[in-house]
Amino acid sequence: MRIGILGSGQVGQALARGYARHGHEVRIGTRQAEVGGLPTGPPAEVAAAAELVVLAVRGSAAEALAGSLAGELDGTVLVDATNPLDASTGSPQLFVGHTDSLGERVQRAAPGARVVKAYNTVGNALMVDPQLPGGPPSMFIGGDDQAAKDTVTGLLRDTGWDVVDLGGIEASRWLEPMCLAWVAVGARTGTWGHAFRLLRPEG
Ligand SMILES: NC(=O)c1ccc[n+]([C@@H]2O[C@H](COP(=O)([O-])OP(=O)(O)OC[C@H]3O[C@@H](n4cnc5c(N)ncnc54)[C@H](OP(=O)(O)O)[C@@H]3O)[C@@H](O)[C@H]2O)c1
């Protein structure tokens, strides 16, 4: 698949390298001139050319970037990996929650994009091909477009994930706080290789 990734931080680079390992054609849309030898381009050009785009920028920039690229993202599957983190007070807080979410703001900013929330409840090191003793961890997703969720589910299963669909994009209201639970485990244990798994009666 031709995949564009918006953002060249830890998430953007981890996904770019991981997807490339799986044979996808990947380009990072970034303002940077160079990103660790990875293929890059201007965000608008990368978004327009991709079959699937991952939004992996700082939470505070996500809504505005999605809005500025709304035309390029029209009809495109947009995987929203962002979290609405505000670290200005020391310990991280969410700048939106309960009755709205960053996932919903991104969807409203780019109404033609087929937004699927994913990847926001796990650290970047595990995002592609997670290896854990308990087996594949669960990636929780949400979005309003079933075909887009089917595409993302396929990509996630191919890259080592069990997938749990929580419904529409408003599931971001529950998924974004889960990132703080993931961070709390790391802060208390000093290790960052953990991931959530949903245990079901049917196994
Ligand atoms: N780090 C993790 O393990 C992890 C896990 C789950 C979810 N997340 C979420 O994933 C997102 C990316 O996280 P990260 O750790 O890779 O990087 P980050 O440090 O949160 O963000 C870096 C990226 O944000 C972009 N950015 C910052 N300000 C911008 C602006 N004004 N306009 C456009 N782009 C802007 C930069 O784009 P350029 O490339 O153009 O410089 C850069 O690539 C965040 O929302 C984070 O909460 C992170």
Automatic annotation (TrEMBL):
Gene3D superfamilies: NAD(P)-binding Rossmann-like Domain
Residues in Pyrroline-5-carboxylate reductase catalytic N-terminal domain copies: 2-84
A GO MF term: oxidoreductase activity
Swiss-Prot/TrEMBL keywords: Oxidoreductase
Protein name: Pyrroline-5-carboxylate reductase catalytic N-terminal domain-containing protein
Organism for this UniProt entry: Geodermatophilus telluris
Upper taxonomic lineage: Bacteria, Bacillati, Actinomycetota, Actinomycetes, Geodermatophilales
